[in-house]
């Protein structure tokens, strides 16, 4: 039985409510998937000693270098170190099992039972995504590039605008859709100013944050998904499961070549063009390559869609839970 409970309030209020609902649920198995829920499960275990707890480590919470520490306060850095170097080593024995998302994460849990579970897309859900007639009609003549994420400077937004500016004479029907909320007013003004100055109003569209299934519709409609990842521990070693979702929607991807684990998965399928960090010329070349050979890349996305699906991982996960 699965129950969804929506919790609101500040961070500590949410953690307290999560702990309370956890205790009241009297569950046989509890699963944590981040630092906050890890701590909640430790507290639940004190009161529900016979229950099993599982840590789903789908990010690199084990390594201090994996965090964006530049944007953390002194107190946050201190608490993070306390968790990684003191709390976690002293409490991980309480967990019955650990699931991880990459093979190389296993080294952080040498004494624990562990299983690699890849959170591949639910293919049945994505197969039901259809683009409505209004959306199809609006963009029927466009070759669409799409970016959907936090619209922040670090995601290479200004460079995407520059790419469109440099390529629009060669691909005259190109259109870049940027989907997401721009949190910084100054940056929003900078984006608008660049679009106006370079006469890009017909080539770039800013779309506010959308519900996930609406994003999927735009993704299915798009011809290329742009995925710039600045070099970092998480980006270099982790696997962005959302990339498999976009490929399952038959949308080729252009991305940076630092995501080694993801590239390892799709190396046999030519549906992703991996380029050097920060090289605009390579991005432009990649866009033109997919534009000129779109059917080839799209067909390779279909091959990926049929290979990396949740159904295979679900069997592993059920077998894993049956052992608890």
Number of strands: 10
Sheet having the most strands: 6 strands, parallel
Low-confidence runs of at least 5 consecutive residues: none
Order of helices and strands: HEHEHEEHHEHEHEHEHHEHEHHH
Strand order of the largest sheet: 7-6-5-8-9-10
The computed structural class is: alpha/beta
Mean pLDDT figure: 84
* Cα-based radius of gyration, to the nearest Å: 22 Å
Q: How is this structure best described in words?
A:
With 324 residues, this protein is α/β, with parallel strands linked by helices. Helices cover 47% and strands 14% of the residues. The strands form 2 sheets. A 6-stranded parallel sheet has the order 7-6-5-8-9-10, sandwiched between helices. The protein has a 4-stranded parallel sheet with strand order 1-2-3-4, with helices on both faces. Helix 6 (157-167) packs across helix 12 (280-292) and helix 10 packs across helix 13 (294-307). The protein is globular. The mean pLDDT is 84.
